[in-house]
Task: structure prediction
Amino acid sequence: MADLLIRNGYLVTMDPKRRVIEDGAVAISGDRIVAVGASETLAATYPTHRVIDAARKAILPGLVDVHAHAGHGLIKTLGLATGTGWEDTCHTAYTTASDPEFWAVEAALSALERLRAGTTTGVSYLGGGDDVMRTDDPIYADAHCRAIEAIGTRSVVAVGINRPPFPITYRDLRTGTDHPITFQRQLEVCEAVAETWHEGAGGRVRVAVSFPVHHRNSEQDRPEIYRDVANQAAATRDLTRRKGLIFTQDGHREGSIRIAHEEFSLLGPDALMSHTVDIDAEEIRLIAETGTRVAHNPSANRSITGRCPVPELIDAGAVVGLGSDGTAPDRSADMFRHMFQCMHYHRRHFRNSSVLPPGKMLEMVTIDGAKALGLEQEIGSLETGKRADVILVDLFKPHMVPANMPLYRLTNFAVGSDVDTTIVSGEVLMEGRRLAGHIDESTILQEAERQAALLLERTGLQAMTALPERFWGVAFG
Result:
């Protein structure tokens, strides 16, 4: 017996042999896959009252987004019209203008967007901008994680450390008071969140810890500050190793990988480094030799100012997963969009249309993404014993027809709204584009609108929503 049988679909297993079964089926019992194979065989072997007909649909593992930011969903476009407006907005919003409800509503909104686009597992830094993390108190991470638990998607929430100098002023909107927050306090909050939430919510929530990327030519290059940074890095890395957590950094570029390794000893198979643009051959070697994972974000601003050498990293043996970099300031949670962007981004660089073929793109958003998070034994492919994270993609739409070469259609033509069904740990969260009964989309959207308006009111940033003077009729804004 099985609790659920998905049958009659174009099954893309992403297993070690990369099997594709044209009339395939997946049998699910509880939160696990119990069989993968031909529809006729599984229908005879696993009788069940619950069947999903996947005719004219592709059956895929749930997609994995290895880098994004909580909070960004409610400030999507603020600051786009000004030079430093985006990071300034992040700093204000995440330190002095957000309460637990803000983080809960944003988490629900982002989880909803992800599941509608077939992303069943996603990393979410609890903050962003220039390493502005909401880790002055565990209540903000608690609010985020409870919202994720209520929706039912899988999340790796990254709590972490701000960029020095310390202390950093945070405001508790519940009391209206400001508090100076030290590095030690942030580290204590990270540990408290890990104690409460790592492998919580039925295994759907995991915790990672972030630490700022540092460069020798940065404003922190004064010897006394650099000594503090080294001590803080060691303490943060000790926490992740003691607790078995992913260690992650956001924004590596131009020599910072070498510094992270040689001066701070941060690299390793439990480390996930984001962006890694304009790194050199030696840094590529260090990443590959240490087993360090890379989060590539082809749609991010960082990929405009530099290039992550993804083909070179893959050739060196490194694991590279694909990230959205969050839903702001100009992006979405649609991993199909980011696959397409990734292919063309690197093909343009090499002037070679064979770079990063569709098969590698599908790996980057499934099994490679799972490996980047240390979860390849649990998710990332459709195999017996793994968590039942499954999506169905509708192949019978005008932009997806004719029916030949479906693997190419999934990367070259599909978009997030082609996802018909999303299942996480055997729970059907969306079927036929209709959400499960416990997910009230209208309420989530209304609350998101309300929280965004409250943020503007608290910060006085309403002017950020105005169009810039150079908007129409110019080539360079």
